[in-house]
Amino acid sequence: MKKSGILNRHLAGALAELGHGDGVLICDVGMPIPPGPRIVDLAFRAGVPSFAQVLDGLLDELVVESATAAEEIREANPETARLLTGRLPRLSHVPHEALKALTVDARLVVRTGEARPYANVLLRCGVFF
């Protein structure tokens, strides 16, 4: 059995398949999930796992070239907005409807147990060299 890192076999496998430019949506339980991308649903119960836990775990595994969140997060969920700004210095913001439209191109969707407004971010994979 794997001792550390991401233990969920579906998530570990999906991350291994990602390449430069691929999109990864980390979302809360309320975000509409578009048809098409691979979905790894980690939600166990409300708040478990938290958005912050999933984000930190994925940032340990991925090189992130850019990130996009809904601009509404700043007012509706300032705690998560600060978390994203602190972890993702090149974070851009778009209206929530535009973020939902961008998720159509995501290759992977990771659903958290978070149930707070706009706890969603679209990451664009970079390369490690």
Q: What would you note in describing this structure?
A:
It is a single chain. The chain contains 5 helices and 6 strands, in the order αββαβααβαββ. The N and C termini lie far apart (30 Å). The protein is an alpha/beta fold and 129 residues long. Helices cover 31% and strands 22% of the residues.
Question: What's the structural blueprint in terms of helices and strands?
Answer:
Elements: H1 9-16, E1 23-27, E2 38-41, H2 51-61, E3 64-70, H3 73-76, H4 78-87, E4 91-94, H5 96-102, E5 108-111, E6 121-125
Parallel strand pairs: 1-5, 2-5, 3-4
Antiparallel strand pairs: 1-6, 3-6
Quickly describe the structure.
The protein is α/β, with parallel strands linked by helices and 129 residues long.
Ends apart, CA distance between termini: 30 Å
SSE run = HEEHEHHEHEE
The main pleated sheet reads as:
6 strands, mixed
The largest beta-sheet arranges its strands as 2-5-1-6-3-4
Structural class: alpha/beta
Helix content: 25-40%
Strand percentage, roughly?
15-25%
Number of helices: 5
Can you tell me the residue ranges where pLDDT is under 50 for at least 5 consecutive residues? Answer: none
- From the spread of the alpha carbons, the general shape counts as globular
Spatial extent as radius of gyration = 14 Å
Total strand segments: 6
Give the overall pLDDT as a whole number. Answer: 94
Features:
129 residues; alpha/beta
